[in-house]
Amino acid sequence: MEKFYNVKFHTVDGATIIKRGIVSAKTGADIWHDAVESYDDDFICLKINDKTLVDLRRANIVRIVMTEVDGPIAKREKQRDEIRAAVNTLAEIGL
């Protein structure tokens, strides 16, 4: 089953590149493979947007953090529930 992840690439100089909403069916340490365009022994190539590609030297990457997040459908449902709760609270107050 595919899940959604945010993948953060932390570099030696303190910079962080975040790829949000990555869909992956992989598990564990292999999830970051779905966040990159290509990789080899020396470089990782990330597509930031339609016009920007970033090459990171693998020796300069300190760590890669992968966090599971809600998908777009679950996020929409959560927002809808929050709006309902806010409307109900306002109705109880009498507004």
3D architecture notes:
Helix content is 23%, strand content 41%. With 95 residues, it is an alpha+beta fold. The strands form two sheets. The chain has a three-stranded antiparallel β-sheet, with no helix packed on it. The protein has a three-stranded antiparallel β-sheet with strand order 3-4-5, with no helix packed on it.
How is this fold's topology laid out?
Blueprint: E1 3-11, E2 16-24, E3 38-39, E4 43-47, E5 53-57, E6 61-69, H1 72-93
Antiparallel strand pairs: 1-2, 1-6, 3-4, 4-5
Span of the ends, CA to CA: 44 Å
Q: Note the main sheet.
A: 3 strands, antiparallel
Structural class: alpha+beta
pLDDT average, as an integer? 87
From the alpha-carbon coordinates, what is the Rg to the nearest angstrom? 19 Å
Strand content: 35-45%
- Lateral arrangement of strands in the main beta sheet: 2-1-6
| Shape field | elongated
What's the SSE pattern? EEEEEEH
List how many beta strands DSSP finds.
6
Model regions low in confidence, pLDDT < 50 over at least 5 residues: none
Number of helices: 1
The helix content, as a percent range, equals 10-25%
List the main descriptive attributes of the protein structure presented here.
single chain, alpha+beta, three-stranded antiparallel sheet, 6 strands, 23% helix, elongated
